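Case study 2.
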Amino acid sequence: MTDELVLYTNPMSRGRIARWMMEEVGQPYRAEILGFGAPMKSAPYKALNPMGKVPTLVHGDTVVTECAAICAYLADAFPQVGLAPEPTSRLRGPYYRWLFFAAGPVEAAVSNKAFGLEVPPDRARAIGYGTYADVMDALEQAVSQGPYLLGDRFSAADVYVGAQILWGLQFGTIEKRPAFEAYGARLAGRPAARRANEIDNALMAEMQKAG
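Prediction:
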């Protein structure tokens, strides 16, 4: 069995989050760039990811989809890098909390805002994230407790939450609050984040030139 790491991605997708995580982990990996449409919906690829979306991580015979899951998996697969608290650490609580908060309430609230979908005020209790304002307030509180979500310790949760914030600030789906801008700037300056952006920006430029 091979332990090769293969990332299926596209530089104009959430695959950029997985790319950043791969660069933080610092292990050799191969990137397979898939175009939207037929390449992602092909039978061989859908055998890996039935959703026909990117990213997908293949590590030997293990397949992982969903950005938050990829971040968590890589942190645990390579514990020597220190991107997740020890399994018995109490820090696992906030680590999981903010990973799942970003994958659930933040993703849903931000996506709805991007498409102009609003939950009627009298139905807010029936939806998982409540209101967009509730989500933004909770997110602001999370990133205001210290340099990172776990205080002074950077983790895979910061990759996922930070990517959501940076993306949202860029495209206007997350409010430009000082706490978000400071947190985003701190993470965007990480060497791994810069490397990942350089790789994906170069790929995106090539694709646009060819297309």
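The chain is about 55% helix and 10% strand.
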